[in-house]
């Protein structure tokens, strides 16, 4: 546990030191759970967004984009269920005065059971060596089965109690499991209460005429209310999708996990409109497609898993998360939800306008069903960044800190380094910068010994360094160094652009999907 915490602290301080993520309004001591992205963070975030957008919109001829406003008519949130049901169950510890999400306390307890299972697996792996069969072990070992059963039973009860709004039972569960406050160690809890997560604001100049508005808590509703606009103007045929990226706002009860849980964050959502009755087929298809998108980035299949929901949101008839191994354990990164006709149906009811699709083949109108994929851009950023940050011990016994970002996402693709700051090397290096900057983000660095500059670029996540030396003046060749392997190759200056492009080209990465 201490190790996990240390790793996470390193991630946060590295993100700050290298211009990726800053606390918002830091000079005023910050604003809780709100963050700003620095010069490198803004690029990484943009690249992740683009990687998603290309995979979703550009490469699918039946998915189109949208950019809806953050402010929406307040009735939207009545129709969507957010006014009444977008609540989290909160509980306070009377001794530490700390506030928690009751469901998260229980889920963390189950997370500890998962950690115990992992420990058993590691132990057994050692014991059985080569012969170890994880699948068999997981389905036959008595201890593992017991932990699994317990975890399942606990989550089932939590889901049922929350579903029935039986908050007293959620408290009873916390008490039965003897869950203590992580801060004070005390089990002196208040009752569980519901808390609405939407931020309110006002539209209009004078108090009498103003309208109460909400900052959108999800981008999805902008898609639903525009369903017919897009379908008609784009002459879209079902099945088709609308994709959108944009800010969402939630007044989260507990927000202590850096950019994992923020009060202002960005979502990348896609709503896929389908024929009623086909939702389970599409649910499986989108689960698989989205997992493939993640795996294309090469961050390790063992770091992902599906988690099927026991507790379904008010709009869903099936839901699964893609979980990622964050520095604090496996947690939700993306949600795939079968939302039925809940949203469109309710918008019809509340607006009095028909939101139906006319199927020319069957000559029938119907309200489409919806399959949604929803991922937090900031959470994806944290997954990519934390997974990339590594301490390596080199052959000579020294260590290096390296940020092994997938090259396609790295903020800077190449750093140009003149070996020394004289003899015309900076000028030649600058020429290379001027040539490459049309295609890539390029940085130039001439300060300190070249070894230190390599380390700096490693820590910055730059996949390539190009060193310009005296030989370059004579024969026009330079040294290209690869961040991950530290291998160096000599090549003509004119070959650098192609060598870099081969590794960072989005096309090559997206082809793996
Ligand atoms: P959680 O259970 O972690 O609160 P959720 O199930 O409420 O998440 P959804 O409503 O399904 O999340 O939102 C879709 C995605 O948006 C999530 O998978 C996550 O990546 C992202 N997301 C949700 N809330 C936040 C937040 N407060 N900060 C950053 N990202 C978020």
How many extended strands?
23
The share of residues in helices is 40-55%
Bound molecules: adenosine-5'-triphosphate
Shape: globular
What would CATH call the architecture of the largest domain? Answer: 2-Layer Sandwich
- Which structural class do the helices and strands define? alpha+beta
Distance between the termini: 35 Å
Q: Would you identify the CATH H-level superfamily of the largest domain?
A: Bira Bifunctional Protein, Domain 2
> Major sheet, described briefly?
7 strands, mixed
As residue ranges, the low-confidence spans are none
Mean pLDDT: 95
CATH class of the largest domain: Alpha Beta
Helical run tally: 18
CATH topology of the largest domain: BirA Bifunctional Protein, domain 2
Number of domain modules:
3
Strand content: 15-25%
Read across the widest sheet, the strand sequence of neighbours is 3-9-10-16-13-12-11
Radius of gyration: 26 Å
Summary of the model, kept short:
The chain is of the alpha+beta class. It is built from 18 helices and 23 strands.
Q: What features would you highlight for this structure?
A:
Herpes Virus-1, 40% helix, 7-stranded mixed beta sheet, BirA Bifunctional Protein, domain 2, binds adenosine-5'-triphosphate, Rossmann fold, globular, 5-stranded mixed beta sheet, 513 residues, 3 domains, alpha+beta, 18 helices, 23 strands
Structural overview:
With 513 residues, this protein is of the alpha+beta class. The protein has 18 helices and 23 strands. It folds into 3 domains: 1-79 and 197-391, BirA Bifunctional Protein, domain 2; 87-196, Herpes Virus-1 (2-Layer Sandwich), CATH 3.30.40.230; 412-510, Anticodon-binding domain (Rossmann fold, 3-Layer(aba) Sandwich), CATH 3.40.50. It has a 7-stranded mixed sheet. A hairpin with a 4-residue loop joins strand 14 and strand 15 (364-366). Helix 5 crosses helix 8 (167-176). The longest helix is centred in the first third of the chain and has 27 residues, at 102-128. The mean pLDDT is 95.
